Amino acid sequence: xxxxxxxxxxxxxxxxxxxxxxxxxxxxxxxxxxxxxxxxxxxxxxxxxxxxxxxxxxxxxxxxxxxxxxxxxxxxxxxxxxxxxxxxxxxxxxxxxxxxxxxxxxxxxxxxxxxxxxxxxxxxxxxxxxxxxxxxxxxxxxxxxxxxxxxxxxxxxxxxxxxxxxxxxxxxxxxxxxxxxxxxxxxxxxxxxxxxxxxxxxxxxxxxxxxxxxxxxxxxxxxxxxxxxxxxxxxxxxxxxxxxxxxxxxxxxxxxxxxxxxxxxxxxxxxxxxxxxxxxxxxxxxxxxxxxxxxxxxxxxxxxxxxxxxxxxxxxxxxxxxxxxxxxxxxxxxxxxxxxxxxxxxxxxxxxxxxxxx
Length: 358
Hints:
With 358 residues, this protein is mostly beta strands. It is built from one helix and 27 strands. It starts with 5 loop residues before the first strand and ends in a 20-residue tail after the last helix.
């Protein structure tokens, strides 16, 4: 999402995606009892700061969206805060700050939300530290403790429906792919119980599959982890490879709910292309939008992996795209038009990172 843009959600029976608008109007909900179908809803922002909000993840039914916004902390201060926006039936209950982990911290980011919208994962930062958190309505924002021996730096990037948070944390040997079921991180392990060097980017609702990126002898490579011992965080790793051309480098950004599809980006000759990985087809480029530079990233997939969204460049800059097997990569607005969604006044400006389209 570009800065100074309203975040929005497209909610309907077939899926959810995020777009942005540079306009000033807020599309409104139909009156109670009216047929709603699919529509765009302006999420607004926190009061007291410059108008800016970013949507990063959304619950299964579209009633909860998490992300970040800038608002007032006091009469003289503003800060960037993780936020949670809610919709109850046809009533917009609005956007609320999730706060920060420390009084001196005036920056936090929400990156993931559980299927029912009740659990949020993210990161709270201050000038010295970056700390992963889990948020629930009962407990509020709670820190997840770092690994012993490493720097005080961690990120909460994905969350399962049981509250398992995955992300990146550090031990004495550097960055590790981590998980936390309660308030202490542990390292995800391969079949030989060796910690995975890298980061865990996303997790399926049942916690069985994790997508991430790890360091290998060839370079950074996307992987899918599948649990063999869920409680102990041990599992089998599938290396996803990379696209041909360019340096060896691939990054996973999201995984479908059923674990069958991983999406992300990979370096190619002349730039970066979005990819889709499945067991049957391996890693495959999603192409690019016409007219722009080779610079595309897939950031989310539908529950079965058949619909993928992300951002890519066309002649006018970064734009949100949608991909499916029938149409290939196209502008997200083309998909919305096909579904009869009113997009007047809205401009697609690239999907938010780590957005989950379920």
